[in-house]
From TrEMBL:
It holds the Pfam family B12D. InterPro entries: B12D. This is Cytochrome c oxidase subunit NDUFA4. Its main location: mitochondrion. It comes from Echeneis naucrates. It is a single-pass membrane protein. The chain crosses the membrane at residues 16-38.
Amino acid sequence: ILVCCLDTLCFAHQLIPLFIFIGGGVTMSFTYLCRLALKNPDVSWDRKNNPEPWNKLEYNQQYKLFTVNMDYSKLKKDRPDF
């Protein structure tokens, strides 16, 4: 299949940017999906040892990918200890 695609690209050079951008988009989507599965506190992979991972977050821990005008190191504790 790969040889067939490479033969097609040799004749149709206008398809090369299409394959590059679609491949980059698929790669970025897969990377973000893996980040959500591994870093998001809403996902629990081990329910016996960590049934509620969202309760183990520190008040100054950043779990969002991108935040605007927010410095997590300067936040004050605003919730009780359990």
